[in-house]
Design brief:
This protein has 15 helices and 17 strands. The strands form five sheets. The protein has a six-stranded parallel β-sheet, with helices on both faces. About 40% of the residues lie in helices and about 20% in strands. The chain has two domains: about 220 residues, Rossmann fold; about 110 residues, HprK N-terminal domain-like (Udp-n-acetylmuramoylalanyl-d-glutamate--2,6- Diaminopimelate Ligase, Chain: A, domain 1). Strand 14, helix 10 and strand 15 form a beta-alpha-beta unit. With about 350 residues, the protein is of the alpha/beta class. The termini are close together.
Length: about 350
Amino acid sequence: MTAIVVSSTVPYSGKSGVCIALIGELEKRGRRVGYFKPYGTMPFTSDGIETDQDAAYVNKLLASPGPVDAVCPVVRTRSFVEDVLAGRAGDHRERVREAYARASAGRDVMVVEGPSDISQGCTVGLSLCDVAKIVEGKVLLVERWGALQLPDALLSARDCLKEQLVGVIFNLVRESERPALMDHTVPFLGSKGVRCFGTLPADPVLSSVTVSEIVAALGGTVLTAEEHLEQDVETFMVGAMGQEKALRFFRRKSHKAVITGGDRADVQLAALETSTNAIILTGNLPPSTLVLARADEIGVPMIMVDMDTLTAVERMEALMGRVRLHGPGKADRIRAMFSEGVSIDELFAAFDV
């Protein structure tokens, strides 16, 4: 049996999406594929069992899902952290070995979702290097890329993993930055023994959030259009200008949320004239009845929050700073992007699958 450990050097690089794509491609080739995430950080209860939210989602996409209690054996909850710091941690490495044996039974290939960076899980013996040894797998790194970036983290990972590192896929690559990446960074890494199997573009649909997720993250109160809370928001804009300028500004982006003061009726009305899926009202100030009526009429949720605009912006940046695969069509979208941007045959040959 072969284990492909999918990990990253920085959080929110899209490794769960790559796991989904790998599973789909392997199943298309007739492999009996399993999924395993030894260390989860998003506590979630599924069928009465504590697991990781992303792990539970990916596992359900398998043609033959694994046992829920074995797919993610260690989850970082508040009580888990308290037990570790109090010296009550137990042998988590052995727990992972036992769970992996169950999850991998009868499988040809295991896709193992590793930690979000090189050090995550180190305290309990479940760092990336530890996980790769426990499952006897080789590592595929998913790297989030940006302009003017040196591959320090990748080379550090190579030094740690040595022959266990097979290569890298670059994710969330803006089209304007791809030529420099392919012409300079990829050849440089190749000269250092790090192989690149392809790139995946930045996609606003995959990083979109629902209005209900925004409400939960900001602790807001929904004032209008509660029936439209499952609309997707792909980006957000801040309204702090006059109405005429605001209208031109807001027309630049669609499927957005607008953050503005609760007393800025002019900006709110301008936002409602463009493709806006939510308006976030800061300062805990309710809007005018005119604005409320218009928002309700066209089905735009208005969310009142008890924080200033800067804090709301910071919360939104954190919320939208990761790729989310839960949602209709997102798994299919990442699979399509993967097949277009990655040399799949070359990748599978490198992993002997």
